[in-house]
Amino acid sequence: MAERIIPYKGLFISYVKESRDPTTSDSSYSVPTIWINESNDRAYILTDVTNGVSVWVFFTGASEALFHNDLLGRDAAAQHPATSVTNTPHGDIASTTIQAAINELDIDKEVRRHRVNVFFVGKHGNNARDGLTPADAMLTFGSAITAANAGDVIFCTDNGTYVENITGKTNVNIFAPNANLTNNVGSHTILNGNVWIFRQFTMPAGVIGIVHNVVNGRCHIKCQEMNVQGNSIALRVPNGEMITDFGRVSLANGSLISNQTAGRINLKFNEIEINGTADIIRLASGAEINCLGNTINDIGGAGRLINAAPDATTNVSVMVTEVLITNLSNINDNVNFRLVSSNVDGALNETGAGRAIILSTSGIDNIPIGENTQNVGNFTTCHASVEFGDIAGNYQILWNPVDNSIDFNF
Q1: Strands 304-308 and 314-330
Q2: What mean pLDDT comes out for the span 142-150?
Q3: Which partner from 85, 139, 342, 346 sits 20 to 30 angstroms from 105, CA to CA?
Q4: DSSP characters for 279-292?
């Protein structure tokens, strides 16, 4: 008899009426399919088809009653309780447990497992569950990552704090817009193709927060808050590229970016606040760093925008609306540092022969840019508010607001 279709929970379930029992070779049907043997009133459900071999689970009881009650949503429990399900094999029908048969009847979970690819995490969760529905959520992000495959998404709406170190899986993304992910002594490792979205990242004292070390890899991190405590380092990218989008970053005595090598960071932020001796960028080796933001505010009076060690060969470009910081930079002669800002308030306390280009409409410490005497650095300054003469060892490009002329001093 031809295969028929009936609607069930918004889906379409196949069923077949025949005068015989199914066999393992009846594998042309989709999971789940109901098979009814009209000659002996037996009912079966197809639970699996692998490599052309089908697994049919046998039910006792009237097949017509089972069909109409269980699939059409009537009171099946009264006429067909769990005792109506048997795990006794019939002919070449594979044996199965009662619970396995019940699980396979969960149509919503079956569709989610094979089509939706979403794993749920929540404070109500349990890592013994499969995470395929909100009710069956896992407890930790690490367990969900282990269960996921490339292309899957991990979803969490809880606003709790999750204390764990997570290691990503390539092309598995995390969407947790209300959660606070806090390091548990160690580091998070983000891999190629990862997009992590959290409400907050918290780095307790003494940790390296998030590391990306994949040659030619690319990852993306987004959060409303990042709290970097003590002497912790928030971001490190020895290889690959990290793209960030941060609302507010709070730094104590560590650094936001540190110890780059061949990596690249594109840092986007609304506000960075320093309340200790932190460096926003601290370099011990080369990198490429691009920063775009609104405000850098050194409320503690001891912070620094960039600090580069003697062997740091790198390019750093910073475009920020307002820079209110005690020390702009301490860079060596292998660093190219470019700062563009509408307002800069801070000192060029250089101890190395750095090369900096600073473009601003205001001065530093209310003194026109370029009149600060650097130790050995070579500074190019644009849009200074007054004209002044040459300083030995430096060259300037100066704008005179009186007659709108540009003077070149070498």
Answers
A1: parallel
A2: 95
A3: 139
A4: EEEEESS--EEEEE
Structure tokens at 93: 């029908």
- Residue 128 maps to a domain: no
Domain span including residue 70: 4-107
Is 24 exposed, middle or buried, given 0-12, 13-18 or 19+ CB atoms closer than 10 A? middle
Contact 227, 205 (CB under 8 A): no
Over residues 245-264, the pLDDT tens digits come to 999 999 999 999 987 777 89
Q: Are strands 378-382 and 396-400 parallel, antiparallel or unpaired?
A: unpaired
Give the residues across from 138 on adjacent strands. Answer: 121
Among positive and negative, which fits the CA dihedral 141, 167, 255, 247?
negative
Asked whether residue 236 falls in the same domain as residue 322, the answer is yes
375 vs 169: which has the higher pLDDT: 169
Of 84, 107, 130, the position where a domain reaches its end is 107
Q: Is the pLDDT of residue 41 over 90?
A: no
Is the pLDDT at 404 greater than 80? The verdict is no
Model-level pTM greater than 0.70? no
CB 168 within 8 A of CB 190: yes
Kindly report, residue by residue over 269-282, the tens digit of the pLDDT: 999 999 999 999 88
Is the residue at 119 inside a domain? no
Question: Structure tokens of 47?
Answer: 């639970």
Query: Of 310, 312, 352, 363, which Cα lies nearest the Cα of 329?
Result: 352
Mean pLDDT of 40-56: 82
Query: CA–CA separation, 169 vs 284, rounded Å?
Result: 29
- Based on the domain organization, do 47 and 184 belong to the same domain? no
CB distance 262 to 238 below 8 Å: yes
Continuous H helices in 44-151: 63-72, 76-79, 98-104, 107-111, 141-147
- pLDDT score recorded for residue 380: 47
